[in-house]
Design goal:
This protein is mainly β. The chain has one domain: Rieske Iron-sulfur Protein, CATH 2.102.10.10. Helices cover 0% and strands 50% of the residues. The chain contains no helices and 13 strands. The strands form four sheets. The protein has a four-stranded antiparallel β-sheet with strand order 2-3-4-11, with no helix packed on it. The protein has a four-stranded antiparallel β-sheet with strand order 5-6-7-8, with no helix packed on it. It is globular, with a radius of gyration of 14 Å. It binds FE2/S2 (inorganic) cluster.
Length: 109
């Protein structure tokens, strides 16, 4: 486990998000009221890019089938639907984030 520098705080204003690739993984970074969070970007249902979804406060809506994830924890807040049936979706992995001297680091395996 090591912390990897992925961006600077200047790259990510309050209420915004950023997609980064670390070690071949796409990670979604977000700034919620000045706090930074990181979760897997690729939706574990069918691979939707959460970065392309709508952000509402501390939540993001998968653009493919509408599952709603908490950006702070990666937890599913609401399962999306496919042909009127709720999809089977798990929580997204979240990563510890630390800020040092204006740099954003996330802990990777
Ligand atoms: S791909 Fe995200 S809910 Fe289906």
């Amino acid at each position: 486990m090591e912390f990897v520098k992925v961006a600077t705080t200047k790259d990510l204003s309050k209420g915004s998000r950023l997609k980064i690739t670390v070690g071949g993984k796409d990670i979604l970074l977000s700034n919620i009221n000045g706090e930074y969070f990181a979760i897997d970007n690729k939706c574990n249902h069918m691979g939707g890019s959460l970065y392309d979804g709508q952000m509402e406060g501390d939540k993001i809506i998968c653009p493919k089938h509408g599952s709603v994830f908490n950006l702070k924890t990666g937890k599913v807040e609401e399962r999306g639907k496919l042909f009127f049936i709720k999809v089977k979706v798990e929580d997204q992995r979240s990563y510890p984030v630390k800020i040092d001297d204006g740099n954003i680091y996330i802990e990777m395996d």
